[in-house]
Design brief:
14% strand; 3-stranded mixed sheet; 62% helix; 11 helices; alpha/beta
Length: 391
């Protein structure tokens, strides 16, 4: 069904990096969600009022809020597809993250209201009228919501959308909550025990827990979450595919919304390479990265001396030394500055956050080892984070 809807309503649906295609995915999800949730709201509200079940009526209101969140999704994707302008040169794609946050707020609001109503129902229980129509409507609701959950999750994965994944999670919550309501009604009818308020409270707690998780997942990219390792590997492998590249480091990825990634990286090339040839090489890498992977890459050129035996030997020695201290440690941008009485060894050391307090200890370990050399070496170390220098 999902594939059929995509073929019918999303032109060029496989081109998920295109902002207009992403907007069409969001529009499809929003329209389908609005139609399904309004129908379920009307049916459940009628059954809830007839049977006197607070949990069914609350479930109906939950469907109404889902329709509202679908409208938010629809508007959010439309706004996020707007092109860049003078005030927003990186585009508006982050609005999609805000859309997911609004959906999370809806989930939390419904969970809180349902919890409050359920507590009142526990304190002042009322009988629930059981009927075949009630069972049919709830089973139909479970089936529709299960399909919506799978539908939105599938769309969310296809375009890597936190907003659509949040909508899918919301629909999954509805499957669980409606199943709990149905179970409570059946148990109350056959065992003559009024569990309506208790089941409603359990559902509310689950919705609140889920809402917190959705809010956390949608806030992380806004706060500056570390990029996925697959993205880092994709960039590193693409750059290293060029045979003249000796190494890469200081890779930083900035996320301005789905399909709007900007990255910077330091690339090591032989210092003997002609500057114009090096410039053309790096320009080519930047162009192909954008064309093939949709990532705006900016490269910093680091010339490396490759024909100095003393420099190469010292670099290997220090690399071995620090890896004995901790396997995650590594160095880059290594160069020697020779003076009359001593030689400066200048390099960057990639350091995990857990070793931030051990900088001086690591430097002392390196300096002590270098004292055994015939030449007087002084180290000038710049500390980087391993978060930007994956092994």
């Amino acid at each position: 069904m999902t594939a059929l809807l995509l073929r019918l309503f999303v032109k060029d649906h496989s081109n998920v990096q295109n902002a207009h295609v992403r907007a069409a995915y969001g529009k499809l999800s929003g329209v389908v969600g609005i139609v399904c949730n309004l129908l379920l709201f009307a049916c459940k509200l009628a059954i809830g009022l007839i049977s006197g079940s607070i949990s069914i009526a609350a479930d109906a209101v939950n469907n109404l809020s889902d329709a509202a969140s679908s409208i938010v999704t629809l508007i959010g994707f439309r706004l996020s597809s707007k092109p860049a302008d003078d005030e927003h040169p990186y585009g508006h794609a982050r609005i999609e993250y805000l859309t997911g946050l609004v959906v999370a707020a809806f989930i939390l609001f419904i969970g809180f209201e349902l919890a409050k109503t359920s507590v009142e129902k526990i304190l002042h229980p009322q009988s629930v009228q059981f009927s075949l129509a009630l069972v049919v409507i709830l089973l139909l609701s479970i089936a529709v919501k299960l399909w919506l959950a799978l539908f939105n999750r599938s769309l969310g994965k296809k375009i890597d959308s936190a907003a659509l994944l949040a909508t899918g999670t919301d629909s999954r919550n509805d499957v669980i909550s409606t199943a709990a309501v149905l179970l409570g009604c059946v148990l109350a009818h056959f065992l003559h025990v009024n569990l309506d308020g208790i089941m409603g409270l359990l559902v509310a707690l689950f919705i609140l827990w889920s809402g917190i998780g959705v809010a956390r997942d949608t806030m992380e990219p806004l706060l500056g979450r570390a990029p996925d390792s697959a993205v880092l590997n994709e960039i590193s492998e693409h750059v290293n595919e060029c045979g003249q590249v000796l190494g890469v480091h200081d890779l930083m990825v900035h996320d301005y919304g789905p399909g709007k990634r900007y990255a910077t990286i330091h690339v090591e090339l032989d210092s003997q390479l002609d500057p114009l040839e090096a410039h053309e090489l790096l320009d080519t890498i930047e162009r192909t990265m954008l064309e093939e992977h949709g990532i705006h890459l900016t490269i910093h050129y680091d010339p490396q001396v490759t024909n100095d035996k003393e420099s190469s030997a010292l670099q290997k020695k220090i690399n071995k030394l620090i890896r004995d201290v901790d396997p995650e440690l590594s160095i880059h941008d290594f160069r020697m500055v020779r003076e009359d009485e001593h030689t400066h060894l200048v390099f960057d050391l990639a350091l995990p956050y857990r070793l931030e307090e051990n900088k001086q200890e690591i430097k002392q370990c390196i300096d002590e080892a270098l004292k055994k050399e015939e030449t007087l070496y002084l180290t000038d170390i710049t500390y980087d984070s391993t978060a930007f220098n994956p092994q």
